[in-house]
Amino acid sequence: MPTSSDTTRLLLDLRKGDGSARDELLTLVYDELRDLAARHMAKERPDHTLQPTALAHEAYMRLVDDADMDWQSHAHFLGVASEVIRRILIDHARKHDAAKRGGAIKKVRLSDAISDPGGVDIEILALDQALQELAALNERHHQVVVLRFFGGLTIRQTALVMGVAPNTVNADWQTARAWLRQRLLDSPNS
């Protein structure tokens, strides 16, 4: 069974230009990437044209092609992978929106997005816009939301990826959810 340290070693080898590390890394992280992609896809519309396998492969290619990435750990890799998958899905939604002019834009329940029990429907692009605004206000809060909601990471895993205490992540998570809830409820697109 591969360990987190195996992944970290391969990421460092990849950064050094070791071509064999690329294939070995894929074998090591493929199941986790596919599970991550499947979690993201579960939040998408049922008739989505992307499949988790294709999404995982696209994300992997983008991740390993980024020669400037300073990989720190297995958890860091999964955190970045989650953001890459989210960006792929947002780009796909934008293309779909341009083609359909709003005809079938994915709506998510606000409760799904930020744990609000009285959730309302919002467009995935409105959520992305709110997340961009949150990033401009507080990048750490944005990163916590991406890792927790889109990446499915626990408080502890998120803390490890970000290099902060779990209590900090928990406080940031609560603050970010409250801000997003208010922003999305005030949004004309919700």
Question: What is the secondary structure topology, with strand pairs?
Answer:
Elements: H1 4-15, H2 19-41, H3 52-64, H4 74-100, E1 107-109, H5 110-114, E2 121-123, H6 124-137, H7 139-150, H8 155-162, H9 166-186
Antiparallel strand pairs: 1-2
Question: What kind of sheet is the major sheet?
Answer: 2 strands, antiparallel
Arithmetic mean pLDDT: 79
Say what the CATH topology of the largest domain is: Rna Polymerase Sigma Factor, Chain: A
Oligomerization status of the protein chains = single chain
Give the end-to-end Cα distance, rounded to a whole number of Å.
45 Å
Please count the beta strands (DSSP E, at least 2 residues each).
Answer: 2
Rg from C-alpha positions? 17 Å
**Envelope shape:** globular
Could you name the CATH class of the largest domain? Answer: Mainly Alpha
Could you give the order of the helices and strands? HHHHEHEHHHH
**CATH superfamily heading of the largest domain:** RNA polymerase sigma factor, region 2, helix turn helix motif
Strand fraction equals under 5%
CATH architecture call of the largest domain:
Orthogonal Bundle
Structural write-up:
The structure is a single chain. By secondary structure, the protein is mainly α. The protein folds into 2 domains: 100 residues, Rna Polymerase Sigma Factor, Chain: A (Orthogonal Bundle), CATH 1.10.1740.10; 85 residues, Winged helix-like DNA-binding domain superfamily/Winged helix DNA-binding domain (Arc Repressor Mutant, subunit A, Orthogonal Bundle), CATH 1.10.10.10. 71% of the residues lie in helices and 3% in strands. Strands 1-2 form a two-stranded antiparallel ribbon. The protein is globular, with a radius of gyration of 17 Å. About 3% of the residues have low confidence.
